[in-house]
Amino acid sequence: MPKLQKKVLFCMAGILSFACALGIAGALGKQLWIKGTILCKTGAMLVNATGEELQKFIGEIQYGLFYGERVKQCGLGGRPTSFSFFPDLLNVIPASIHVSIIIFSTMFIVFALAGTGFFMFNAFGNPYEALHGPVGLYLWSFVSCSCGCLILILFSSEVKMHSLSEKIANYKEGAFTFKTHTEHFQTSYWIILFCTAVHVFNVFLIRFAGFHFPFSKSKELDTTTGAIDLMY
Q1: What predicted TM-score, i.e. pTM, was given to this entire model?
Q2: Which chain regions cross the lipid bilayer (predicted)?
């Protein structure tokens, strides 16, 4: 492939990687990860609410990785409150999983920025083989993609398997019991998914630029090359 086309592809991949870093940083601090509704089970059972009457006992909840808001409905109007995960909810939620999500999100930003630097260096510099060249591009793209996958898996597990919304809704509630009615992932979650897919796309851009996947090259060595070989 001509050198100019390689530069264009690497610049495109670098810009995408940088955009992902910005998107993840923005998503990390927002409370747009989960939005749903919570049912006041105790109140609904006391009056045997059904149909439209049941709507009086359905509140709302929305949260991210650091804070959120909830509106509790127990038949007498909504009770809006805000909450913070640190330090209030650490004894209620699976703290190890939640902290791991934040750590991997931070690492995702760092690796995306590192990938941006490597792509631009390969586009405008004189990269060497090994980690400065295509192997480095594959490495950072793979590590970034892995971080994104771990974030999605851990957060989905925390929400669905550990009933995160119910634990938040029932925090410091002695008289009423709340149950998750509906919940769905919001913008920040889909940004992480999109950024993960972008790094997978970057892998194919590297391959399209003419560089084979690591460990897929022939074992035959070129005896005419020196100790340090330039990529191009």
Answers
A1: 0.85
A2: 97-123, 135-155, 189-209
